[in-house]
Amino acid sequence: MAKLAKLDDIVSLCKRRGFIFQSSEIYGGLASCYDYGPLGVELKRNVREAWWKDVVRMRDDVVGLDCSILMHPLVWKSSGHADKFADLVTVCKKCNTRTRVDHLEDHADEHTEHVPVETALVDAADLDKKVCPNCKTVGKFSEPMAFKLMFETQMGANADDTMTLFLRPETAQGIFANFRNVMDSTRVKIPFGIAQIGKSFRNEVTTKAFIFRTREFEQAELEFFCKPGTDEEWYEHWKQRRFQWYIDHGIKAENLRFRDHDPDELAHYAKACVDVEYKFPFGSGDWQELEGIANRTDFDLRQHQRGMRTINDWHEAGGDLQKITLKDEDPEYFKGPLSYFDEQAKERYIPYVIEPSAGIDRSTLAFLVDAYDEEEVDGKTRNVLRFHPTIAPVKAAVFPLVKKHGMPEFATKIANDLKSSFSCFYDQKGAIGRRYRRQDEAGTPYCITVDGDSMEDNTVTLRERDSMEQTRVSADQLKSLLIEKLGL
Ligand code: ATP
Asked: What domain count does the chain have?
């Protein structure tokens, strides 16, 4: 029986084996920022690659993009983030802890949609009954206020040309801002998608829970543009496709589910939204969002058309976003610069957008949690990460049984040959049993041992991580056999 992982077990394994470290640890750490160590960086790279392969490379209808993190401030005015991307917070008068109002009642379970400020205001009505999650004092809260989630920074070398910019809080807006460029430079025809993986930044009020919610994180987002009227079909397509992706890469189906957003939870422009949720082992062991899939209609492209018409006002206001309001929409907005001409139907329209939006770090945490297992073997605890081979940071490890009789040379030759096809680790230190255990803990699917017989008959021992079964295979056939077994 697989053991249910606790977050503490995962955090300690991640530190011990070099998956994930606290950022700036030698200076006491920086809250809610994390660094990926030697194994973690490979793991995260594999998660990213697996997403890119499924969403971009294997399809003819999706292209990729990599936008800069810093963008023109009007991007965030048009998207609504500059005015509305905020959480409603209150401060405990006793201990000074700032908490999101919508987290107060059931703070323990860390259930954390960004609730629109207007909705959170309803909750704020009875603050005097609520408990501070830090010091447990009841009803001693300050007047709720909006807390902006975007990080600001300054661009420009001279005082008179310095401009306030935002670190992007999502990657999606860079895709909308490049919609025209991609259409003009490629032969894409609707339906098609533009995908991007990159860093996003949010000054989250509530963090904790390791890499589940951090202030700097990586997103994998797809904006799939389709003809209005076909949007529901595409929404269904991406919903199923994205759910299946997690299962295909080893997440147990019983730990995944869909959660449809209630109508009152939906953003005003969204026609439908569903979360793929994972049963994370923290908080109350509750289901929590792994990825959101939304039907965003034609809202974003229309908003950017309004923003493009506002550029002169922005210059006149000296770049102060607070002093401008977006220009009204042109009545003929559907013929605007971000419209699409459908050659077949001979009509022009603003496409609808289906957006699957995943977190690379949050998925990495789900893969770690789901793969974690402990079992008793010969009276000792064996820690093992049962990663799917595609996700595993190291695919194979090669060991000489002892450091003599030509075994290290034989094993090094094998390791070098395997390295040209996939990540492979060579280790000649310590007892063989201990070397196996170290690889189990790193999630390495196969170990290969070179022993005395290898020198005689050119065979090696192949040990499988999950069953610990050992078989004898020919060194000449090892690479093709592993490629087949790993499904590469
Ligand atoms: P949440 O409700 O968890 O705050 P959200 O609904 O605001 O997230 P989206 O804006 O839909 O999140 O972002 C899409 C995905 O990006 C999320 O499903 C999650 O995987 C990831 N993500 C968002 N915020 C963070 C964060 N602070 N840290 C790590 N991953 C994040």
From this structure: 3
> pLDDT tens digits for 386-406?
999 999 999 999 999 999 999
For the stretch 114-150, pLDDT in tens is: 666 666 665 566 788 888 888 888 888 998 888 899 9
Count CB-CB contacts under 10 A for residue 374. Answer: 13
Span from the CA of 359 to the centroid of ligand 1 (angstroms): 6
Of 114, 148, 182, which residue sits at a domain end?
148
Q: Which helix (H) or strand (E) holds 375?
A: strand 372-377
Please choose from 216, 289, 360 the residue to mutate so as to test ligand 1's pocket, defined by most ligand atoms within 8 A of CB.
289
* Domain annotation covers residue 376: no
Q: How far apart are CA 287 and CA 281, in angstroms?
A: 9
* Cα 375 to ligand 1 centre (Å): 33
The phi, psi pair for 33, rounded to 5°, reads -125, 140
* Interatomic CA distance for residues 303 and 305, integer angstroms: 5
Per the structure, the complete domain to which residue 448 belongs is given by: 394-486
Q: Which atom of ligand 1 is nearest to the CA of 275?
A: 18
Show the CA angle centred on residue 130, arms to residues 129 and 131, nearest 5°: 130
Which residues sit with their C-beta closer than 6 Å to ligand 1? 112-114, 170, 202, 204, 213-214, 217, 219, 289-292, 357-359, 361-362
Instruction: Reply yes or no on whether the pLDDT at 159 is more than 90.
Output: no
Task: Give the domain CATH number at 32.
Answer: 3.30.930.10
For ligand 1, atom 29, the nearest C-alpha belongs to 213
Lowest mean pLDDT among 2-11, 310-319, 335-344, 383-392: 2-11
Domain membership of residue 237 (yes or no) is yes
The Cα 254–Cα 231 span in angstroms is 29
* Nearest-10 Cα torsion for 345, 179, 352, 189: 30
Best residue for ligand 1 mutational test, from 36, 219, 282, 365 (most atoms within 8 Å of Cβ): 219
* Burial group, residue 79, by CB count within 10 angstroms (0-12, 13-18, 19+): buried
Distance in Å, CA 286 to ligand 1 centroid: 16
The answer on 213 and 93 residing in a single domain is no
Identify whether 329 is part of a domain: no
Task: Please give the C-alpha separations between residue 139 and each of 65, 196, 332, in angstroms, as whole numbers.
Answer: 48, 44, 52
201 alpha carbon – ligand 1 mean position (Å): 10
- Clarify whether residues 142 and 181 are in a common domain: no
* Token code pair at residue 440: 């189990």
Asked whether the beta carbons of 90 and 322 are under 8 A apart, the reply is no
Q: Is residue 74 part of a domain?
A: no
